[in-house]
Amino acid sequence: MLLIDVTPLKNVEFRRLYLSQFISAFGTQMTLVTIPFQVYKLTESTFHTGLVSLVELICLLATVFFGGVLADNVDRRKILVYSEWLMAALVSVLAVNAYLATPALSLIYVLAGVLSALSGLHRPSFEALTPLLVPKESLAQANALTALRQTSSALLGPTVAGFLVASIGPFLTYGLDVLSFVV
Asked: Half-sphere exposure (CA, 13 Å, Cβ side) for 165?
């Protein structure tokens, strides 16, 4: 049986960051499933569904390297807090848009791109914080926990999102992601 050493979670600051990012990553995965689902429901076009994913990819690639530079030169905690609040606000706009009788497709494209760009700015700061929060001798265990968090949220988030978006719709699914940011 393979067990993961949870010793780094004894560190209060790492535990808070780890658990908050676990919940937030789970919510983000739900939005990543909800966006293409909503685009397909609105357009019934696989082209548009693929196009929104291309927009997300281009925006992510456009910012990820700048995110690394930013993480090296600006307070990482501030980057995380501001980007999380901004992403929560943008997902709130997605939720309001989904609630409308006729959601604006162009707004979904723009918000999906901006959310992806923010992710490119956010992730390097998150990754760079771990070595500052745990002792060097616990870094391998902290990285294993981070990998577990990423894999779990990447597997469970879309699964739950698929069920939720099909049963309760995009508005409430986006709303759950907003709540995950608040946590």
From this structure: 25
- Cα within 13 Å of Cα(120), Cβ side: 18
- pLDDT grade for 1, boundaries at 50, 70 and 90: very low
* pLDDT bucket at 2, cuts 50 / 70 / 90: low
> Rg for the chain (alpha carbons), in Å?
17
Q: Is the dihedral of CA 43, 164, 60, 112 positive or negative?
A: positive
Q: How many CB atoms lie within 10 A of CB 118?
A: 20
Distance CA 146, CA 44 (A): 37
Centre a 10 Å sphere on the Cβ of residue 102 and count the other Cβ atoms it contains.
7
- Read off the pTM: 0.90
The residue written with tokens 């960051």 in the block is 17
Which tokens sit at 172? 């409430």
* CB of 164 closer than 8 Å to CB of 173: yes
The pLDDT tens digits for 14-23 are: 899 889 889 9
Across the range 135-141, mean pLDDT stands at 90
Q: How far is CA 150 from CA 25, 76, 117, in A?
A: 8, 19, 19
